Amino acid sequence: MSDTAPAWLGAAIGKLRPGHGKIVAAKLGSEALLGKGGMTLSSAAFRNAGELDPCFTADEEDAVAPPVEWTAPPPGTQELVLVVEDADWQTGEPFCHWLVWGLPGQKGQILEGETPPRVGKNAFGNSEWLLPDPPTGDEPHDYVFQLFALDLPLTLMPGASRDELMAAMEGHVMGLAILTGTYAREEGGDYDWDDEDEDI
Questions:
Q1: Residue 196: inside a domain, yes or no?
Q2: What is the number of alpha carbons within 13 Å of residue 177 lying toward its C-beta?
Q3: What percent of the chain has pLDDT over 70?
Q4: CB 59 within 8 A of CB 191
Q5: Is 124 inside any structural domain?
Q6: What is the rounded distance in angstroms from the CA atom of residue 155 to the CA atom of residue 30?
Q7: Residue 192: its pLDDT value, please?
C-alpha cells in the first residue's frame, strides 16, 4: 500500500502532511466510503480540527478519553470500529492512541471516560486511551479519530494489535467518518511515562 496521503483525505482533515498517508483511513478507506450514507463522527468536547482540552491529555491529572458520537452508518453495517492515531509523531509513523471495536452497527456514542466493549493495544502496548503528549515546542499534532463501518462482526479478542485489527478489517469497510482534534503540549508539561522515554 502507498504511504502517500490520498487527496480525498484532505477533505476530511484539511492540510495533509506525510504522516496522514500512513493512518488506517488512508490504507483501508476511499473517497467513496468517506461519509457514505451520511455517516458522521463528532464530539461535544471539540469541533473538527479544533483543540483538545488538556483534560483529555497527559498535561492534566485524571485525564480520560473524550466523548464521541456518530450518526447512523450505512445500511447493512454489522459493527463499528474506532481508531485514533497521531499522524504527526516524530518518526513519521502514526502513533496509535486508541483501538476500539465491538461497537453496534447503529447510531451511538462513547461517553467521556467510558470503557468501550473491546479495546486493542495502543502504541505503548496498553489496552486503554493513550494520553496525547506531543513534544514541547512542536506545532499542534493531529489526533485523527477514524470510525469504520464493517459488513461483518469481528471475532478479535480484546488486546489485539493495530496490525491484527487492520488485517481483520481489510475488504470489509463499507463506510468511514473522520474527526480530527489537535493538541500542542504546553510549556512545563511534566507527565511521567514511568520508564518510557519517548514523547508522543
A1: no
A2: 24
A3: 91
A4: yes
A5: yes
A6: 24
A7: 43
Q: Sign of the C-alpha dihedral, residues 49, 51, 55, 57?
A: positive
**CB atoms near residue 42 (< 10 Å):** 17
- Specify whether the CB–CB gap between 118 and 63 falls below 8 A: no
Strand partners, 100: 82, 119
C-alpha to C-alpha distance for 120 and 93, rounded to whole angstroms: 18
- Element housing 173 (H / E): strand 173-183
d(CA 33, CA 116): 24
Give the distance, in angstroms, between the CA of residue 78 and the centroid of all CA atoms in the same chain. Answer: 20
CA distance 2 to 25: 12
What spatial distance separates the first Cα and last Cα of the chain, rounded to whole Å? 25
Question: Which CATH number fits the domain that encloses residue 90?
Answer: 3.90.280.10
Does some domain include residue 193? no
**Residue 195, pLDDT score:** 41
Alpha helix segments (H runs only) across the chain: 7-13, 24-28, 162-169
pLDDT at 62 over 90: yes
| pTM for the predicted model, two decimal places | 0.91
Q: Read off the amino acid at residue 161.
A: S
Q: How far is CA 127 from CA 7, 59, 65, 117, 162, in A?
A: 32, 20, 13, 11, 11
